[in-house]
Design goal:
The chain has a single domain, classed as Gcn5-related N-acetyltransferase (GNAT) (Aminopeptidase). Strand 4 (74-82), helix 4 and strand 5 (109-114) form a beta-alpha-beta unit. The protein contains five helices and seven strands. The chain has a seven-stranded mixed sheet, sandwiched between helices. The chain has 160 residues and is α+β, with helices and mostly antiparallel strands. The chain is globular. Helix content is 29%, strand content 38%. Bound molecules: coenzyme A (COA). Coenzyme A (COA) binds next to strand 4, helix 4 and helix 5.
């Protein structure tokens, strides 16, 4: 069974390996070493929340989000990664649902997605994220980012 929990210091080498092995992050020159450094800092920065997804004891996904990291208001999802051998199994969907239920997501969730990462665009659009803008060459030459936003969905009232 998939387990979702806070990411802890012991997870950072595994999460970083997972991130560094994904072609998307390799394209950005984002190495496992850089990811491990960032995740370790995020664990103590007081603004980040980190989620780990594990399956049978192995780390299979992670999310790094920053409270009010978007425009000083909305939760900014900085990184979403699922083990490359386990894409399409519902792990990303489960992680995003978990993040959206955090109190920090009450003022909505914002994230960036590479303009040529069509798989991730379909993923977010299936989860009802709206494409609200673009940042041409934001990260570097030829690296355009799309801005996605999802307003907070209040829990539906229980029947009766
Ligand atoms: C994008 C990513 C986080 C999605 O996680 P995932 O666990 O593979 O996705 P899920 O299995 O939860 O898919 C959820 C929905 O998105 C769709 N989806 C997932 N991967 C897809 C793909 N490659 N192509 C098309 N649709 C896809 C699924 O059909 C599913 O919809 P459904 O449940 O209605 O059928 C993951 O594939 C990943 O880590 N990719 C590489 C890194 C990356 O792109 N990160 C995002 C950076 S912005």
């Amino acid at each position: 069974m998939l387990r979702l929990r806070d990411l802890c210091a012991d997870d950072t080498p595994h999460a970083a390996q997972l991130v560094g092995a994904l072609p998307l992050y390799q394209r950005y020159g984002y190495t496992a070493q850089a990811a491990e450094r960032d995740l370790q800092r995020a664990l103590v920065d007081g603004r980040s929340r980190l989620l780990a997804a594990s399956y049978q004891g192995a780390l299979v996904g992670c999310v790094w989000a920053i409270d009010r990291g978007a425009f000083g208001r909305s939760l900014y999802v900085r990184l979403v990664a699922v083990d490359g051998t386990r894409h399409g199994l519902g792990i990303g969907r489960a992680m995003m649902a978990h993040v959206e239920a955090w109190p920090e997501a009450r003022r909505g969730v914002v994230l960036l997605c590479s303009a040529d990462n069509q798989d991730a665009q379909r993923f977010y659009e299936r989860l009802n994220y709206r494409r609200v803008g673009a940042l041409p060459e934001y990260v570097g030459p030829g690296l355009d980012e799309l801005i996605y936003y999802k307003a907070h969905q209040p829990p539906s009232p229980s029947p009766g």
